[in-house]
Amino acid sequence: MSRRFSSLKDDPKSKLQQEIVSKSAWKIKLAASISAIAFLLFLLNFSSGNRETPSVNSPTNAYGTQPLVLKEGDPYIRALMRTISASEANDRRPYSIIYGGDHVSDLSNHPNRCVPILVGPNIGNCSTAAGRYQMINTTWDEKAKRYHPRPSGFMFWKSYSFEPEYQDAVVYAWLKDPQAWGVDISELLRQGKINQVLKRLSGTWTSLGYGIEDNSMSSKLPTIYKKMLREELRQAH
Fold it and tell me: Alpha helix (H) ranges present in 177-220?
């Protein structure tokens, strides 16, 4: 038997057949590997498609323009608040969203979760931005001390609820305060100077345009503001 095996091994036709079989087996393995990879990619894509897509920093729809929880106030400032959230926290549940797109259930205080920044000029750092207006924890603490309508605690031990109504209340009072911005924001809005207002606020909310951290909604904000203002003026009458 060994002689027959030896003679077949030395036969050129036999070698050719072996090479053909070997190449065919390799092609089958390659095709199977490609199919397996394609299937895994399909599963990943299907899975992500059934999750709520993180909208912070990459919004595609104006979910963030939904009505405020705050029920009263200057319609011009209210429209501006809805415009800010259109690019900062463009989500169906903007009040509970944190940087990166996840949601938190406990809003008794600012979530204060430092999420790694993966894109943009601040890559490598982390952000505690949270809520409809994506306020970082230090900004929230500073502004809540000044504008929060119902702080809890005693003496120097204060806490500031981050519930939706208080997010709105703090940002509303902040935007209404001329000393905070060096100008009367409400008056500028009444004069139709929305671009000037957005530029002034862009140092605080970096997605409002002017090249800091623009996103897909930044260029649409003046138009969004006009639509929000029409809604707010209609509701005010």
Answer: 178-181, 185-190, 194-201
Based on the domain organization, do 220 and 157 belong to the same domain? yes
The helix-helix angle for 2-10 and 12-49 (nearest 10°) equals: 80
> Is residue 58 included in any domain, yes or no?
no
Local confidence pLDDT in tens for the 237 residues of the chain: 333 333 334 454 455 455 544 555 555 555 555 555 544 443 433 333 333 333 344 444 556 689 999 999 999 999 999 999 999 998 999 999 999 999 999 999 999 999 999 988 889 999 999 999 999 999 999 999 999 999 997 777 889 999 999 999 999 999 999 999 999 999 999 999 999 999 999 999 999 998 788 889 999 999 999 999 999 999 998
Question: Count of domains in the chain?
Answer: 2
Looking at the structure, do residues 27 and 134 belong to the same domain, yes or no? no
